[in-house]
Amino acid sequence: MPAATKRQPPRSSTAPAPSALLAWYDRHRRRLPWRAEAGRTADPYHVFLSEIMLQQTTVKAVGPYFTDFLRRWPTVRHLAEAPLEEVLSAWAGLGYYARARNLHACAKAVVARHGGHFPADEAALLDLPGIGPYTAAAISAIAFDLKASPVDGNIERVVSRLYAVDEPLPKSKPRIKALAAALTPERRPGDFAQAMMDLGATICTPRSPACPLCPWMEPCTARAEGDPARYPVKAPKGEKPRREGVAFLIVRADGAVLLRTRPDKGLLAKMTEVPSTPWGARPETPATHAPLAARWRPLPGAVEHVFTHFALTLSVLRADVPARTPAPDGHRWVHPSGFDREALPSVMRKVLAHGRIGEG
User: What is the pLDDT of residues 137-172, one digit of tens each?
Assistant: First the structure.
């Protein structure tokens, strides 16, 4: 008997037409705070700011931050002249705080090297701090309408389904990038990139994609196979390591809380924190790290927070001290009314909420 041959998945004979996607985009484009209206040139600063904010964050979450940043710092020069501490404070709650430091460093470099104007050149953009291949391609295409191919999660999903890319991520990224580049037209590359993003966000969604509404339904190989949600194929994720620590929530009689600024480098650099033990695989003895001597009481439960590379559990000890208690070196007293001026990351806001600080 002849050896059985492996069944090949169905392939469409129709190539994806950029014109079909652009026609769909002209009818269905999303209105976003950072997106220029049809026929208008995008502001490179707006594109830069939104793309940095949108990394690993949702459009819904970014909207208010983008609007607030533009109100505070309407141009890249204004942002460059702002103190980093103010930028970190405005960013607080958006997460992945290295992005805020990179945002500020890049703004300063644009002013110093390019007179406050983003260069209309992908290689020059890549030379700026905090701008990687994706962001450089996005600014080039959207702000300057140059033929460049940014590939975010939405575009990755669209392309992997169009061509049924069965190699798991992240190994398939170079191939997906090459396929996206081959699709990008000479005309309207910026609109095309945004159309791909909108298609992935609204039609070619991770679960239950609305294939009948897609302008590329016919040429889509994954749709022809009958299981588009299978793509992109992802390698199984390992379990994140867990770290533990103890936070010291010290509340003065007038309601002020003892806070400090984290070191200049490392995780949450220069952010404001509630003092704590180091975070490790095993919790360290609290007594050796408490910022001052006090009568401590453990609060019920714990604070759970997930970072990119590990999950954190913080037990919380609370102490109530007299109003005239001095702050130890490197620490400061902050009343809850001043928290909005502090660069408090989400994990520290959780600690404060756990201690019911600022309620009532």
Answer: 999 999 999 999 999 999 999 999 999 999 999 999
List residues with catalytic annotation: 51
Give the integer Cα–Cα distance in Å for 100 and 122. 22
Residue listed under structure tokens 């990351």: 345
- Give Cβ neighbours of residue 127 (< 8 Å, ≥ 6 apart): none
Q: What is the pLDDT of residues 331-348, one digit of tens each?
A: 999 999 999 889 899 999
Per the CB < 8 A criterion, the answer to whether 274 and 352 are in contact is: yes
pTM over 0.70: yes
